[in-house]
Amino acid sequence: MSSQGKLLNLTLKIWRQKSRTEKGYIETHEMSGISTEISFLEMLDTLNDQLERAGSAPIVFDHDCREGICGMCSLYINGQPHGPAKATTTCQLHMREFKDGETVFIEPWRSSAFPVVRDLMVDRSSFDRIIQSGGYTSIKTGSAPDAHATPIPKEDADLAMDAATCIGCGACVAACKNASASLFTSAKISQLALLPQGQVERTDRALNMVAQMDEEGFGHCTNESECEAACPKEISVENIARMNREYLRASVVSRK
Amino acid sequence: MELNGNVPEGDLKNLWEKHKFNMKLVNPANRRKFKAIVVGSGLAGSSAAASLAEMGYNVDCFCIQDSPRRAHSIAAQGGINSSKSYPNDGDSVHRLFYDTVKGGDYRAREANVHRLAEVSGNIIDQCVAQGVPFAREYSGYLANRSFGGAQVSRTFYAKGQTGQQLLLGAYSALSRQIKSGQVTMHTRSEMLDLVMVDGKAKGIITRNLLNGAIERHAADVVILCTGGYGNVFYLSTNAMGSNVTAAWRAHKRGAYFANPCYTQIHPTCIPVHGENQSKLTLMSESLRNDGRVWVPRKKEDVAAIRQGTKTAKDIADADRYYYLEERYPAFGNLVPRDVASRGAKLECDNGLGVNDTGEAVFLDFSVAIERDGYEAIKAKYGNLFDMYQCITADSPYDVPMKIYPAIHYTMGGLWVDYNLMSNLDGLFVLGEANFSDHGANRLGASALMQGLSDGYFVAPHTVSNYLASNKQEAVSTDMPEFEAAENEVNETSQRLLDINGKQSVDDFHKRLGKMMWQHCGMARNEAGLGKLITDVADLRKEFWTDVSVVGEKGDLNITLEKAGRVADFLELGELMARDALARKESCGGHFREESQTDDNEAKRDDENFQHVAAWGFKGVDNEPERHTEALDFKHCIPSQRSYK
User: Fold this and answer.
1) CA atoms of B555 and B161, how far apart (whole Å)
2) pLDDT (0 to 100) of residue B285
3) pTM of the complete model
4) Which pLDDT score is estimated for B383?
5) Which one, out of A211, B78, B125, B190, has a CA that is 20 to 30 A from the CA of B546?
């Protein structure tokens, strides 16, 4: 016996694409008896189970922790990154958000900086390269000063924490009509700019991370704030404003 | 065979310092001649890879996810312990050491745990220097809280996302080394075998998960940081991708697997709702500070709640059974994890479970909300309540949460000595993947500490010592050992694809999980474990004749990935049962029903089981060999626990 909730019948329109270079297409699947208690990814698991039993290739999608924190799950659901629920990752989206008889469109992130790997899986390594370009403090292991040696005002620590909460899922890029990575990049620049530990490399960090973002092919920010609206962790566009100030400051003071 | 933990002689307090001094060093100019393979990029893996690279070694780091930042360490919520005693409440290295050994029910090595307590302060320093935004007081100094029933406030935290922030700190250090070229990062790569050359771990075979290509990698040492094996139960709080494959394949190459029966069960998880469920979500244990656990006293109330004709609010206080408060008045709802877990199972087994499946108890905040006010409770637990509501559609402000225990953390793992080296020369194992430090640990905020301690502060020294004291023969991936291992990997994949059976990989995984939960879960007994050993062996035979794996070997194939991991779980499950059967005592995360006190509490048997049990692999269908390492307690004198 189990807690089924209500049972839904759905029509799924899912993007299939064999590889980065092959053309994609929409495939239709009818699903019946989907419990409103299960998550969106569990619904896709169910579909994959049916496909595998029929000897077909399952639909490839990224997922891992299923607790809304690893940032691996993605998907446009009816055109919205991570689907209709506010501040929710796809893995935390539940089927009770959908109506019986609904048609649901499921697509991968669309951005040239996130090339499709297969079906719904995309390559987000451009985000890693942005972090590699300066999203750290260069402290050597084992030689850090005592943690209490540097007091940090609570307000600063809290703001830094709010920025640091970014899970790197890429919904901000997916939601932006320019496919800008400004929210992601600014979150890390903000976190470290707000803390005393981040000051020494502050100038280089802002210049390098913004340059890397451009090099990866992400678009520019035109203050649409769609990123903030789509962000499952509600990262504020205030960070983008801070990044812009950091960049401007760096452009003035940098001697490079 | 008696195993030697290689703990150096001397006074415990100076042991690690003395050992560090006595260990050999590698000249900075020579470090670039050495290469280390680090498998896994969680707290242990990222910190080890970053530290070794920074010292000048060449590092190849591997993870199965698309980015090292996705490792499951990211999901840890509560906090990380450290003996800094900032709140001036009497904490010390010795007290943290003592609490951890006691919390591990005297089944951990004293010397390892003492070192963990010693370096715990450095971990906080390191993370703060990285810009980890730990919670602060208005003074600007770090905030602490008490966690998991500790009597001192030694837990540092970053909201409810401590694991995330610590991992992102280690990931940023790793990213810096990737950029510098000192670390070559291999994402979406799964280790499928360990390569031994002349009795030394010299490389690994991986599968590129994007295109199915089998790759060979050679190095001077191999360091496994691949996490725990809780997904053997199918439903657990682990990430879906967490698996035992890397550790298990190393076990099959000769590495001993220690204490596999020690599994931590977390009492406060969202209950199972149905057959399609893929995972269980943990609600932070901090909830038990204000939540009261109860079930209805009367069966008719239970039935009414299940049918929906009554709600929790309709049950009068006198008809509510606050079983933890009644049974353990001194600890109440704050009894340790396994005691709370067994309590919930007992009431549900008695037919008092409050949901459709009969496997849930109430965690009720109504008294706390009445006492402290809505705003105060919201400030403390708001994000957790939102998370619960997102998953269940119920608001814990209005109705009690429903909770049930779930598998959370595994304390067993590959056996390692004081240097964190396995019994295989050159194979190091860090973090949850090893058995070390925690024993049957039931303490919160300790796992993060061990992962980072191993990676930042222990392995960099002991791995250097290994490289300096042993002549490293040149290895190349052309050697016959690499070819043989690659062939075996290919054969196993082909064998899986050729079965063409009728049942899906998940069918087998779910069946295994249910068996494990039933007989090797919260409580175990001789008859159940005996049956489990046979049942798992039968299921394994069925798997290898009737599993269906679609797709191809040389391609992105998520079904084949899962199949390989489930095949390994099917072997590990049997070993867990054998270990649990052999350990005829109750101890920490292992509750053996035959060994309990008159009050139904866990009863240890120090005379016969004050040891680590490490199993040697003897072939899939053969009985493994049980080795022991005696544990000696000079500073913490074992005592029986009581929560009455």
Assistant:
1) 36
2) 79
3) 0.97
4) 82
5) B190
Percent of chain B, pLDDT > 70? 98
Query: Residue A140 is encoded by which pair of tokens?
Result: 């050597």
pLDDT at A192: 98
CA–CA distance, B96 with B94 (Å, rounded to integer): 6
Confidence grade of residue B644 (pLDDT, cut at 50, 70, 90): low
Q: Which residues of B touch A41 (CB under 8 A)?
A: 278
| Distance in Å from the first CA to the final CA of chain B | 39
Secondary structure element (H or E) that encloses residue B492, with its range:
helix B480-499
3-state helix, strand, coil in chain B (%, to 5): 45, 15, 40
Report chain B's mean pLDDT, rounded to a whole number: 94
Contact predicate B381/B287, CB 8 Å? yes
Helix (H, G, I), strand (E, B) or coil at B543: helix
**Whether residue A2 has pLDDT greater than 60:** no
CB pairs A-B closer than 8 Å: 229
d(CA B449, CA B156): 11
pLDDT at residue B337 greater than cutoff 90? no
Question: Cβ A1–B275 below 8 Å, yes or no?
Answer: no
The nearest alpha carbon in chain A to B42 belongs to A70
Residue A105 sits at φ, ψ, to 5 deg, of -95, 130
Helices A154-164, A182-194: inter-axial angle, 10-degree rounding: 150
Q: Report DSSP letters for B395-432, one per residue.
A: -TTTS-EEEEEEEEEE--EE---TTSB-SSBTEEE-GG
Give residues 108 to 147 of A whose Cβ lies within 8 Å of B.
117-118, 123-125, 127-128, 131-133, 135-142, 144-147
Give every CB contact of residue A163 below 8 A, 6+ residues apart in sequence.
Answer: A186, A187, A188, A190, A191, A194, A235, A239
Placement of tokens 């050491």 in the chain: B97
Percent of chain B with pLDDT over 90: 85
Does A97 reach chain B within 8 Å, measured CB to CB?
no
Residue A1 has pLDDT above 70, yes or no: no
Distance CA B366, CA B383 (A): 17
Q: Give the per-residue pLDDT at B240.
A: 96
Angle between helices A238-253 and A202-215 (to 10 degrees): 110
Residue whose token pair is 């020494």: A200
DSSP B72: G
Tokens of B399: 């109705």
* pLDDT of B440 above 60: no
Confidence (pLDDT) at B335: 83
Give the pLDDT confidence of B3-26 residue by residue, as tens digits: 999 999 999 999 999 999 999 999
Task: For chain A, say whether B390 makes contact (Cβ under 8 Å).
Answer: yes
Rounded to whole angstroms, the Cα distance separating B466 from A228 reads: 50
Q: Can you name the residues that pair with B320 across neighbouring β-strands?
A: B296
- Contact yes or no for B298/B365 (Cβ under 8 A): no
Element (H, E) at B267: strand B263-269
Tokens 């270990």 found at: B579
Cβ separation B176–A151 shorter than 8 A: no
Of A53-67, A95-109, B334-348, B477-491, the poorest mean pLDDT is in B334-348
Letter for the amino acid at B182?
A: Q
Contact B49, B174 (CB under 8 A): yes
pLDDT at A165 over 60: yes
